[in-house]
Design goal:
The complex is a heterodimer. Chain A is α+β, with helices and mostly antiparallel strands. Chain A has a domain of 148 residues: Butyryl-CoA Dehydrogenase, subunit A, domain 3. In chain A, the strands form 2 sheets. A 4-stranded mixed β-sheet of chain A has the order 1-2-3-4, with helices on one face. In chain A, strands 5-6 form a two-stranded antiparallel ribbon. Chain A is globular. The C terminus of chain A is likely disordered. By secondary structure, chain B is an alpha+beta fold. Chain B contains 13 helices and 8 strands. In chain B, the strands form 2 sheets. A 4-stranded mixed β-sheet of chain B has the order 1-4-5-8. Chain B has a 4-stranded antiparallel β-sheet with strand order 2-3-7-6, with no helix packed on it. In chain B, a hairpin with an 8-residue loop joins strand 6 and strand 7. In chain B, helix 5 runs antiparallel to helix 6, helix 5 packs antiparallel against helix 7 and helix 10 packs antiparallel against helix 11. Chain B is globular. The chains are: A alpha+beta, B alpha+beta. At the A-B interface, helix 7, strand 6, helix 8, helix 9 and helix 11 of A face helix 5, helix 7, helix 8, helix 9 and helix 10 of B.
């Protein structure tokens, strides 16, 4: 078993981290929020810098100008993007790369940056709609590329570029495309979860750093169990999320049968985990964490918006349950459980 | 990245699997029963040992095979998959044995280790006391050396799993109360049938009686049964506790019921609910299932590190912490789905599995490190947060109990 990133992926993450830290930051997310028209504010790094970097189109074939990489490659990059609240999201690039498979011209346009796609679902706001110049959507079973009327509203998190899109006309890219659409949606969920993993990890780091420094009653607040334990609970959730993101990305690349479960699990886990991380970040900071001037709410905004993107967390957990129960009903060795083994050791472990 | 066995691992898995298949009937089935008597369990462990499936990671001279942690993980997976009940001498293998291997004399190793692996002798670990649970180093059981060099042990231990059937135990004692509490400890091997040892079973809230309180009344132990130096018992105990980390909830093993048995139960019962109740049950189950998958795949990351030869670090505590939580959530959901039976300890058809599971799980959040202690370990050792100040720092044990 080798369930770990390889050296190339670690190098990729490191290079992506270098680029993204230089190209985007929570300060940029704040600037978007403070802009005169936040609903249409530009996000950093922005589409052209992302495309030029090559990171956004890692999953587009090399001969069409992309990176020819795997979804796992894209996921480790997307994690870095999540750490700095980068926009636009890598989700749109990943979905478009799946949807446009076989359409060399459009894929090349995606990789060159001469076309800015957003993917429009049946209902709900469209991610990165405000920076898009064309839309991919399903009409009946046809995959269509066309224009649309974009309506913005006051954003909760301007880095997500959300808007309502009324699609119109367009050209059929592929018929009988529902399976491809579903696959692309799942790939999008994996990338969204990877970004959320980065956002949650960074939120935890900031909270832990503060808990080490901030003094109360003569000692660092991180020494108090009430604070320490809430940070640990977030850490445990993040590590489990990391495992689910890697598994889901691996499944998309190597084991498509496992992708529906893995993508839904990652989507559910990222919603719950990012929310916990962001709320803990605020709580650990106390009053300063609730101010406009502190970055905590920028992470919190991501959590509160992302949970509703590409289907919400309730839908994701429901899908997980339905898939698991269908599999269980199909396997017939029904049996009573064994009782959990009795506590198999004395309560003798100690704080060391 | 892959989830495949290496060629060596695959060959080992096939060896393990064919042994289990060949002896499937003799090995017993953990489903649908409470627990076997210890005689049956001893025979099962001996069979597995003779087949080369117990203690593979132990050195050859200790009765093992000098194998890798990955080989052990594969054995665990295969036995679990086949539904073979757990080993009775788990505490001996996971904790007492490694302590003897690291700190015992050659004579002790010869005398004890192979018999421990075959369950010819059962072992228990005598650490916790009524006044020292999580704060183990505050223990009070005294060992005093006599003129002939032997030791006399007096005091009380508690929560001692298997003490009522055990042949030997490792006991942590205080040999010097006039130094700091971590300094004055010494570890011994003690025969549980020795004169002056009294074992009283403690009934758990689940109704079972798997652990005990143990009284030592001037029990004589020769100096040759000391493990490690006099006063070095804390370091010796750390060996025991580090080994414990691997045994409980490491490597992504499931705590409590298997998720597949829960899934089958939910699949069978959910249709009895109204549609709005079904939606709620699916939310609960979906969340618990996601947590289970997260723990499982995090365990695979740890196994991958083990497969590369790494030793599990403090982050392995996360598996027990999260696994205990999700096991309780799953047990709660499973009992809830029993309808009227949920309020009784036994279902109308006479089965008790889900109710037993529910009643057993609170203990898992305490045994082998409470949730709170595990969170301290993770917070301090992994996140690097400062420790809580201690009121007993810089004073002797005797001063600390005044």
């Amino acid at each position: 078993m080798n369930f770990d990133l390889d050296d190339e992926q670690r190098d990729l993450a490191s290079a992506a981290g270098d680029f993204l830290r230089g190209a985007a930051s929570p300060a940029d997310a704040r600037a978007a929020l403070d802009a005169d028209d936040p609903a249409n504010a530009e996000t950093r790094p922005g589409r052209s810098a992302l495309v030029d970097s090559g990171f956004a189109t890692i999953t587009v074939p090399e001969d069409l100008g992309g990176g020819g990489g795997s979804l796992l490659d894209l996921a480790v990059v997307a994690e870095q993007a999540g750490r700095v609240l980068a926009g636009p999201s890598f989700v749109g690039y990943a979905r478009a790369a799946v949807l446009l498979a076989g359409d060399g011209d459009r894929l090349r346009a995606l990789a060159e940056g001469s076309a800015a796609y957003a993917v429009v679902d049946d209902d709900g706001p469209t991610l990165d709609a405000i920076s898009a110049d064309r839309f991919l959507f399903l009409r009946g079973d046809d995959l269509v590329c066309g224009g649309g009327a974009v309506t913005t509203r006051a954003p909760m998190d301007p880095t997500r570029g959300l808007a309502q899109v009324a699609v119109d006309g367009g050209d059929v890219v592929a018929g009988d495309a529902r399976l491809r659409w579903d696959h692309a949606l799942r790939v999008g969920r994996v990338v969204l979860a990877a970004e959320g993993l980065g956002t949650a990890s960074r939120a935890l780091e900031i909270a832990v750093d503060y808990a080490k420094e901030r003094q109360a009653f003569g000692r660092a607040i991180g020494s108090y169990q009430a604070v320490k334990h809430s940070l640990v609970d977030v850490y445990v959730q993040i590590e489990n999320l990391r495992s689910l993101v890697w598994w889901a990305a691996w499944a998309a690349d190597q084991a498509p049968d496992e992708l529906p479960m893995a993508a839904a699990a990652a989507k559910g886990a990222v919603s719950t985990t990012l929310e916990a991380a962001a709320e803990t970040l605020i709580q650990v900071h106390g009053g300063i964490g609730f101010t406009w001037e502190h970055d905590a709410h920028l992470f919190w905004r991501r959590a509160k918006v992302d949970r509703f993107l590409l289907g919400d967390d309730v839908a994701a957990y429901d899908e997980v349950a339905r898939l698991a129960l269908a599999a269980a009903a199909a396997s017939s060795d029904a049996s009573e459980p064994s009782a959990p083994s009795a506590p198999s050791a004395p309560a003798g472990a100690v704080a060391r | 990245m892959d989830f495949e066995d290496t060629p060596d691992e695959a060959a080992w898995r096939s060896t393990v699997r064919s042994f289990v298949e060949e002896h499937r009937a003799e090995l017993g089935d953990r489903r649908g029963r409470r627990t076997d008597g210890d005689d049956v369990a001893r025979v099962r462990q001996a069979l597995l040992y003779d087949g080369g499936l117990v203690g593979v990671t132990w050195p050859v001279e200790a009765g093992g095979q000098g194998g890798t942690p990955m080989q052990q993980a594969i054995i665990d997976q295969e036995l679990s998959r086949a539904g073979v009940p757990g080993l009775i001498n788990l505490i001996g293998i996971g904790m007492c044995g490694p302590t003897v291997i690291h700190h015992g004399s050659d004579a002790q190793k010869d005398r004890y280790l192979k018999r421990l692996l075959r369950a010819d002798d059962l072992w228990c670990q005598l650490f916790s006391e009524p006044a020292s649970g999580s704060d183990l180093a505050a223990l009070r059981t005294r060992a005093v050396q006599t003129e002939d060099g032997s030791w006399r042990i007096s005091g009380q231990k508690v929560w001692t799993t298997l003490a009522h059937v055990a042949d030997f135990g490792i006991v942590l004692t205080r040999t010097d109360p006039d130094v700091a509490k971590h300094r004055g400890l010494t570890m011994f091997v003690v025969p549980m049938k020795a004169e002056g040892v009294t074992v009283r079973p403690l009934r758990q809230m689940s109704g079972g009686a798997d652990f005990n309180e143990v009284f030592f009344d001037d029990v004589v132990v020769p100096d040759s049964e000391r493990l490690g130096d006099v006063g070095d018992g804390w370091r010796v105990a750390l060996t025991t506790l580090m080994s414990e980390r691997l045994t409980l909830g490491g490597g992504g093993t499931e705590i409590g019921m298997s998720i597949s048995s829960v899934a089958q139960h939910v699949a069978r019962r959910i249709g009895d609910l109204s549609s709005d109740r079904q939606a709620l049950a699916r939310q609960d189950f979906g969340r618990a299932y996601v947590d289970t998958l997260g723990i499982r795949y995090t365990g695979y990351r740890q196994l991958s590190a083990i497969s590369r030869g790494a030793f599990p670090g403090p982050e392995a505590s996360a598996g027990k912490l999260a696994g205990t939580r999700v096991a309780r959530d799953l047990a709660d959901l499973s009992v809830r789905l029993l309808g009227d039976d949920a309020a009784y300890a036994e279902s109308a058809d006479g089965s008790t599995g889900w109710q037993d599971a529910q009643a057993g799980l609170p203990g898992m959040a305490i045994a082998g490190g409470t949730n709170e202690v595990l969170r301290n370990v993770l917070g301090e050792r992994v996140l690097g947060l400062p420790p809580e100040p201690r009121a007993d720092k810089g004073i002797t044990f005797k001063e600390s109990i005044r």
